# Entry
Amino acid sequence: MKLQIVQVSNMKYSIMALTLLIVMVPAVGSAESQERKGQRLFAGCLDKVDDRATLETGLFVCKGKRDPEPFGGNGRACGDCHVPGDNFGISEKRIAKLKSDHPFFFRGLDEDQKLLRTHGLVHVIIPGSIDEFRQTPKLVHLQTLCDKKGNCDSLGLRGDRVTNLCAFSIEAIKNHMAKTVKRVPGKDFRVPTAKECKWLVAYMVSDLVADQDERNR
Ligand code: HEC
# Structure
């Protein structure tokens, strides 16, 4: 009889422990996976990012297939310009090593291919305000520049852009990742969902991006 009571109370503890586990694991998991989901979108990977290969090559390497059209666009992903091995910018040395059919050199937009190849100058167009060739800035400092929700002190090389990371990401997709210069939403690219934008922001302000400084070669 005594044995039975012990068994029952053991079972009670097991159930309690199990319940705690079920409640806690998704809570911990989701905080982690938001950053990872954002990383996948940023890198243009349909599956996870291969961390080791990414670290070794300095360029994002996917574990599975690469999304042929990140955000329904021209094939470029954020991570083709903001590469991990260059603190999430891109150096002229790295550009010189890219194959000519790399999405970085997508030819259907209003880029100056010579400026792009030799100086890494990208055409930045914000209708009605900006029409210039600018270098891709590093992103490792975003963690100190922005709060967790993605509201930043300033963004863009001249500090003349929207200061919210989600709004900035939408502009980046429209600007650099559209299929044609018409940049029609839903046709040339697709606007990220609120969730996707949250994930991108979570990634950009996370240690996954901030800590790349030391890994730079
Ligand atoms: C074709 C290359 C290219 C692609 C693709 C690209 N970017 Fe950029 N990114 C740039 C350039 C160039 C700038 C500088 C813009 C400026 O100064 O106005 C920039 C600036 C930024 C900044 C501002 C950083 C700072 O310190 O001010 C953020 C954040 C950013 N990009 C995020 C993204 C995200 C997110 C994506 C994908 C959705 C993306 N970028 C895709 C080239 C690119």
